[in-house]
């Protein structure tokens, strides 16, 4: 599976690989090309308080988890209240936009319908898809810039069993906001690539996952492995067609 997305600390994605789930837009025959469909975006807001920002890896993993929390929520499928918007979003380019909030901004954003994912110290709220030019006022005024985050120490290499692994391309430099959108795409591709039994097991476990940057010497092999990959549309930060992420299913021991 290969996915492509566009970004302004966001991302637009086209995907290829494997067996897609029946709710994947790459599985369905589209009535019109994706670029001609109404365009929606999935908004994500990361909480970055001035004196207590989250670590980079924690924010990345929490953003990826937020995406699958939205996809798996009963409101996003069938006759759910968000289902029509989720379908419209998936029928166009799969766009995600990451913005930041603190203090009163975060409190106001948290009052809008959505889901807040929490990590070790990170909080990311994901909202139902919105039209490209139809953002709620509380979200449209939030900043895209200023999402650069750091890790105080190198993330552990051993991530343990039952975790999905989302690998970042070591050859690309992206802002943390851009990376959050990219790993969100990776988590989405994994969700589409799973059958119902695999989805239920991952969901029941709380969507355990880890985000890591692969060693430079392994990237070419990993990108050619046939695993779900994210290929960026190149609207911001990276060249069109760049493979930003490779995602792998949870390893069961």
From TrEMBL:
InterPro entries, sorted: Pep_tRNA_hydro_II_dom_sf, PTH2
Gene3D superfamilies reported for this sequence: Bit1
Keywords: Hydrolase
Low complexity: compositionally biased ranges: 1-24
Reaction catalysis annotation: an N-acyl-L-alpha-aminoacyl-tRNA + H2O = an N-acyl-L-amino acid + a tRNA + H(+)
Pfam families hit by this protein: PTH2 (PF01981)
Presence of keyword Hydrolase: yes
MF terms (GO), sorted A to Z: peptidyl-tRNA hydrolase activity
Enzyme Commission (EC) number: 3.1.1.29
Root EC class: hydrolase
Stretch list, region Disordered: 1-35
Record carries keyword Glycosyltransferase: no
Protein name: peptidyl-tRNA hydrolase
Organism whose genome encodes this protein: Streptomyces tirandamycinicus
């Amino acid at each position: 599976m290969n996915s492509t997305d566009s970004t302004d600390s966001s991302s637009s994605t086209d995907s290829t690989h494997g067996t897609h789930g029946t709710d994947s837009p790459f599985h369905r025959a589209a009535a019109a090309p994706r670029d001609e469909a109404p365009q929606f975006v999935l908004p994500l807001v990361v909480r970055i308080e001035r004196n207590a920002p989250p670590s980079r890896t924690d924010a990345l993993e929490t953003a990826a988890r937020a995406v699958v929390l939205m996809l798996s929520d009963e409101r996003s499928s069938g006759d759910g209240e968000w289902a029509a918007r989720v379908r419209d979003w998936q029928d166009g380019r799969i766009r995600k936009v990451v913005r930041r909030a603190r203090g009163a901004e975060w409190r106001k954003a948290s009052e809008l319908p959505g889901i807040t994912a929490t990590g070790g110290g990170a909080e990311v709220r994901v909202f139902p898809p919105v039209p490209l030019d139809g953002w709620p006022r509380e979200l449209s005024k939030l900043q895209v810039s200023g999402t650069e985050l750091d890790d105080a120490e190198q993330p552990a290499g051993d991530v343990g069993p039952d975790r999905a692994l989302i690998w970042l391309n070591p050859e690309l430099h992206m802002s943390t906001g851009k990376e959050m959108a990219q790993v969100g795409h990776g988590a989405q591709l994994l969700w589409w690539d799973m059958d119902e039994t695999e989805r239920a097991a991952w969901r029941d476990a709380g969507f355990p996952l880890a985000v890591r940057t692969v060693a430079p010497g392994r990237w070419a092999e990993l990108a050619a492995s046939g695993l779900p990959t994210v290929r960026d549309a190149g609207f911001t930060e990276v060249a069109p067609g760049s493979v930003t992420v490779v995602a792998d299913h949870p390893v069961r021991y």
